[in-house]
Specification:
- By secondary structure, this protein is mostly helical.
- It is 81% helix and 0% strand.
- The chain has one domain.
- α2 runs parallel beside α11 and α5 crosses α7.
Length: 211
């Protein structure tokens, strides 16, 4: 457990996030969609760390800068920041008629707003002093909601990418499906590995107690 959020790590993640947004924007993708894509990519990175560590223990030594343990908090926080920028651009596009937007918002929009609400809570509780105050067990329980965020955001992007007229428009919509598939595959694989490990431990115990 890394209780620190390092400024240098935040700076690197921020620069990468801004660079990706600019690359997508200058490639012809609107700023609203560019921020949505980068936010989802940051969420993807955040959620793949846990399963990768369970599936492949040496990952912490192979990946650069000890990425799996020390960068997860920064990635999650910047997912929240970029998501807030994304929804702010949507409100700005509607002349900040937030009430009107909320009245006419679709179910997928509600899913996105709820995801941002949960993301803000998790980001606030990602700092060392807050973690120590809550306790590791309470913190882990709270941060299980990261997968609630994933499914809410997944439903949101699938609706916007495939269930509206004229979609999908370009490659970025298909990339969402690829990232969602990878996350689900990693999660299922890690779950199966844990079950197999547990069953083997039971078998070892039975062998030890049997005459």
């Amino acid at each position: 457990m890394d209780f620190r959020n390092k400024f240098s790590y935040h700076l690197i993640v921020a620069l990468i996030s801004i660079s990706l947004v600019l690359v997508l924007f200058f490639s012809g993708i609107t700023l609203i969609r560019a921020t949505a894509a980068v936010a989802f990519f940051l969420l993807f990175l955040t959620l793949t760390i846990g399963p990768i560590m369970r599936l492949w223990k040496p990952a912490s030594k192979v990946l650069p800068w000890n990425l799996p343990w020390s960068w997860r908090g920064e990635l999650g926080i910047w997912f929240t920041i970029v998501s807030i920028v994304h929804i702010s651009l949507i409100f700005s596009d509607r002349q900040w008629d937030i009430i009107g937007y909320l009245i006419g918002v679709r179910l997928s929009g509600v899913a996105g707003l709820v995801a941002i609400f949960f993301a803000i809570i998790l980001s606030v509780t990602s700092f060392g002093k807050v973690i120590k105050f809550l306790g590791i067990a309470s913190w882990k329980w709270l941060h299980n909601f990261s997968y609630v965020i994933f499914y809410l955001v997944g439903a949101h992007v699938i609706n916007h990418s495939f269930l509206r007229s004229g979609r999908p428009e370009d490659w970025i919509h298909w990339s969402y499906l690829v990232l969602i598939f990878i996350i689900i595959t990693l999660q299922v694989s890690a779950f199966v590995k844990n079950v197999i490990k547990y069953r083997k431990s039971l078998q070892v115990r039975d062998d030890e107690v049997s005459p």
